[in-house]
Amino acid sequence: MSALRQKMIEDMQLKGLAVRTQEAYVNAVLQLSRHFKKSPDGIYEEELREYFLYLKNEKRVAESTFSIALCGIKFFYEQTLKKEWHTLQIVRPDRKKKLPVVLSTEEVKRVLERVQRWPYQVCLKTIYACGLRLLEGTRLRVKGIDSARKMIHVVEGKGGKDRYVPLPDHTLKLLRQYWSTHHNPVWMFPRHNGLDAIHETTVQRAFRAALQESGVHKQASVHTLRHSYATHLLEAGVDLRIIQIYLGHASPSTTAIYTHLTSVTEAQVHQRINRIHAELWD
Questions:
Q1: At a CB cut-off of 8 Å and minimum separation 6, what does 3 contact?
Q2: Strand partners, 197
Q3: What b/e readout covers 70-101, taking b as 16+ CB neighbours within 10 angstroms?
Q4: Which of 74, 114, 125, 133 is an active site residue?
C-alpha cells in the first residue's frame, strides 16, 4: 500500500467514516488514477474537470456512482492533499427524482416463493419482513436476534448507526428453523466454511432468478424489498416517523417518498376530493 493511500485511509478513520465508505472512496481515487495512468497527486485541476465531464457525458454513470466518485475524490484532494480547487466546489451529480420500484404484497410472495435454495429464501424473507438493507440481512448475527422482545438489533447499518426493528412472529419461527440446520454461533446466514457470512452477490443472483421465474415484470432488486416493506407499512397505517426509525433514515424527507407510492393513500385522496366536490355541487 502506498504512503498516499495509507494517509487517506487514516484521514478517513479520523473522520469516523464507515469501513465500506472508506473502501468506496479509495476505489474512486484509484479509478481516477487509472484513467490518467499516473499518481493522483500528479493530476491537475483541469484534468479533474475533464474527468468529471467524462463521467457525466461519455460514460453516463448513474447518479449514485457519480456521487461516490465525487465524494471520494473531493475528500482526497481537500482533506489529504489540502488542495482548494474551484472545480470541486461546482461539480454536482445530476439530480433525477425517480420514484423507487415497489412490489405489491402478492408480488413479494410470488417472487420469494420461487427462490430455489432455502438459505437464500430465508435471508430474502427476513430482509423484506424487517426492511433490511442487503448487507444488513446477509450479515445478520445470531446475537442480534432478540427473541424475547421480538426485535432485531441491526449493528452498524448505513453510516455506522445501530437500530432496532420489529421481528414478526412468522419470521422468528423461520429463523429458528433455519438456524437449527447449522447452529453457527455467530452468523445467521453463514457460508459453507462457517467463518464468514453468506456473500451478498449470491443472494442478489438468487433474487434475480426468482424474479424472472415469477413472471413479475418490474425492474426490481433486493433493495426493492426494503422499499416495499416501507410502503406496505404506510398502507397499513403505521406512522411515517416510526417507519423512518425502522429504516434508519436520518431525515424524514427520505422516508416521505413512500407517501407517493401507496395505492391506499391515492384512494383516500380521491375519496376526499370527491367528497369535497360532492358537497360543493350536489
A1: none
A2: 190
A3: bbbbbbbbeebbeeebebbeebebeeeeeebe
A4: 133
What the block records as the C-alpha cell of 254 is: 427520505
- Active-site residue flag, 183: no
**Average pLDDT for runs of 10 along the chain of length 282:** 89 88 93 94 93 91 88 94 91 77 92 95 95 94 92 78 88 95 95 90 96 94 92 84 83 69 55 52 50
DSSP type of residue 99:
P
Point out the catalytic residue in the list 7, 35, 110, 158: 158
C-alpha grid cell, residue 68: 461516490
**109 catalytically annotated:** no
